[in-house]
Design goal:
mainly alpha; two-stranded antiparallel ribbon; two-stranded antiparallel sheet; 48% helix; EC 3.2.1.4; Glyco_hydro_9; hydrolase; 6hp_glycosidase-like_sf
């Protein structure tokens, strides 16, 4: 949720002007998440990071209204550290504080006062507060926290590309020359993701989709595409290009690549399938989602127990409840998609897939 909130906030910061009447919904989504994160950090020195046991929860296929598994609460503190989730929570609160700075100054100050952790968090804290100590932390810990490694990775579990792109905006605007190594890393990210570059590190499917091994590939597609678009705008505003093996890569080319990924998600692909549920004439009908696949309480008032839901999980019938707007994990490396609940890596939707797509869709809907 914290990563989702960070990316939603970044979408509003960079592309809110393109959202039109949907901006209000985006702000509500950000605030819904940050209200929760404020409650999770209300005890000084403690962050409540998880509710529920993954093993017991995954062992059941039941509606949210019927859940009867233990709601175990997990926390981190000085004696039980968890700097990764603390850092992401700090980043989410700091990013959201920028979103609400002019819209709700009191709430913005509350968010910023609560935030504080590590390099990704420090980058957003510096952007939100302009305080010198966060800038110094970024400079002093760049090598220790390996900002120059795995430069083409960005997601809830790896922030390297995001850190480099975020900080590069300051460099490109002439406000942070001492952070130029982050811009160099961001340029390296661009060169690593461009097709046709000899040392490119990112694989593409035959149909042109960014593909990384592991589950839920669309999380990589949307997050990396978001960075492509954000960086292209930073380059445009500062009249810069990216040099890649003697080739000059323009901001327009980055936008074109990002748009190609968005078009693929929405149906311009070998399967002729939209991977956004409810969009287009053909989209996933059997997504790996309990609330979507089980009958609603209105249609089936009686409780559906932990194992009783297996009948609905295994049926080949389409889900009775359409989760409009959800984007699933997507096709495999050969552009094939099974549209089957048991294939959760392909058919499960997540908030961290959708969050980066918000900014992308806002921009391209306003520039087509």
């Amino acid at each position: 949720m914290a990563f989702t909130a960070t990316l939603l906030s970044w979408s509003v910061i960079d592309f809110g002007r393109n959202m039109g009447p949907e901006l209000g919904n985006a702000l509500k989504a950000v605030r819904w998440a940050t209200d929760y994160l404020l409650k999770a950090t209300a005890v000084p020195g403690v962050v409540f990071v998880q509710v529920g046991d993954p093993l017991s929860d995954h062992n059941c296929w039941e509606r949210p209204e019927d859940m009867d598994t233990l709601r175990t609460v997990y926390r981190i503190d000085r004696d039980h550290p968890g700097s990764d989730v603390a850092g992401e929570t700090a980043a989410a609160l700091a990013a959201a504080s920028i979103v609400f700075r002019s819209r709700d100054p009191g709430y913005s100050r509350l968010l910023l006062d609560r935030a504080d952790e590590l390099l990704w968090g420090a980058a957003w804290l510096h952007k939100a507060s302009r305080r010198r100590e966060y800038r110094e932390y970024i400079v002093n810990n760049e090598v220790i926290l390996r900002a120059g490694e795995t430069i083409n990775e960005f997601g809830w579990d790896n922030k390297h590309a995001g850190i480099n792109v975020l900080i590069s905006k300051e460099v490109l605007m002439g406000r942070a020359d001492d952070l130029r190594s982050f811009q160099n890393n961001a340029d390296g990210f661009i060169c690593s993701i461009l097709p046709g570059i000899s040392h490119a590190q990112v694989q593409y499917s035959p149909g042109g989709l960014i593909f990384k091994a592991g589950g839920s590939n669309m999380q990589h597609v949307t997050s990396l595409s978001f960075l492509l678009l954000a960086y292209s705008n930073y380059l445009s505003h500062s009249n810069h290009i990216v040099p890649c093996e003697g080739r000059s890569v323009s901001p327009a080319l980055l936008k074109q690549l990002a748009k190609r990924q968005v078009d693929y998600i929405l149906g311009d692909n070998p399967m002729r399938m939209s991977y956004m549920v409810g969009y287009g004439g053909r989209y996933p009908r059997r997504i790996h989602h309990r609330g979507s696949s089980l009958p609603s309480v209105a249609a089936h008032p009686a409780p559906i127990g932990c194992k009783a839901g297996s009948l609905f999980y295994l049926t080949p019938n389409p889900n009775p409840n359409i989760l409009v707007g959800a984007v699933v994990g997507g096709p495999n490396s050969t552009d094939s998609f099974p549209d089957s609940r048991p294939y959760f890596q392909e058919s499960e939707p997540t908030t961290y897939i959708n969050a980066p797509l918000v900014g992308l869709l806002a921009f391209f809907s306003a520039h087509t």
